[in-house]
């Protein structure tokens, strides 16, 4: 646990009882979550077990679920944080293949995360959840309503569906 992310979080967490503002649990929990967001979005390096250690050390005092931190790590490009959170959630990384046109770099694989948008079967969809085993995602296509969006179509997309097609070996 010598990563820069863990050290940064510990420097904040270790001083939590020294000021008057920490007498409010709600405020403390919000500040712990804010510090974790800054550490992730700032690109600090995580060791594989860091996120699990931070979550167990804070005993659930950090609001929000691991999925929101995972989405933040992917969006901010913090690969070590995303890997640490995947390990905490006990799932293998799920990549979206190169054939999806929305990716910022069409030559790059991108990690799937909750909130990720992609075109599936001609529908613009948003990933809303992962399966328990991490081998598939649920993506929803929405239609607008006056006050909200209503789910128009729900897709279950597997790891095999998201994987890029394997190049066929050239025959001599």
Would you write up a description of this structure?
The protein has a 4-stranded antiparallel sheet with strand order 3-4-5-6. It has a two-stranded antiparallel sheet with strand order 1-2. The protein is an alpha+beta fold and 172 residues long. About 4% of the residues have low confidence. Helix 2 packs parallel to helix 4. The protein folds into 2 domains: 85 residues, no CATH class; 68 residues, SH3 type barrels (Roll).
Q: Could you give the topology of this structure?
A:
Layout (H helix, E strand, L loop, with lengths): L3 H10 L11 H17 L8 H8 L8 H11 L2 H10 L6 E2 L13 E2 L5 E4 L2 E8 L5 E9 L4 E10 H4 L10
Antiparallel strand pairs: 1-2, 3-4, 4-5, 5-6
- Given as residue ranges, the uncertain stretches (5+ residues, pLDDT < 50) are 101-107
Number of domains: 2
Tell me the Rg in angstroms.
19 Å
Q: Report the sheet with the most strands, covering strand number, pairing sense and barrel closure.
A: 4 strands, antiparallel
Tell me the distance between the termini.
52 Å
Summarize the structure.
The protein is α+β, with helices and mostly antiparallel strands.
For this entry, give a set of tags.
single chain, alpha+beta, SH3 type barrels, 4-stranded antiparallel sheet, two-stranded antiparallel ribbon, 6 helices
């Amino acid at each position: 646990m010598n990563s820069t992310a863990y050290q940064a979080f510990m420097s904040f967490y270790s001083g939590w009882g020294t000021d008057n503002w920490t007498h409010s649990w709600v405020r403390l929990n919000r500040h712990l979550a804010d510090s974790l967001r800054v550490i992730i979005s700032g690109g600090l390096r995580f060791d594989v077990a860091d996120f699990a250690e931070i979550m167990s050390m804070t005993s659930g005092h950090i609001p929000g679920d691991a999925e929101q931190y995972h989405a933040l790590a992917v969006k901010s490009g913090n690969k070590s944080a995303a890997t640490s959170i995947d390990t905490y959630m006990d799932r293998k990384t799920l990549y979206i293949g190169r054939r999806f046109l929305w990716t910022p770099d069409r030559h790059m694989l991108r990690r799937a995360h909750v909130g990720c948008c992609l075109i599936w079967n001609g529908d613009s969809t948003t990933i809303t959840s992962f399966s328990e085993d991490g081998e598939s995602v649920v993506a929803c296509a929405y239609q607008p309503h006056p006050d909200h969006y209503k789910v128009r179509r729900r897709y279950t997309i597997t790891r095999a569906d998201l994987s890029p097609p394997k190049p066929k070996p050239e025959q001599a």
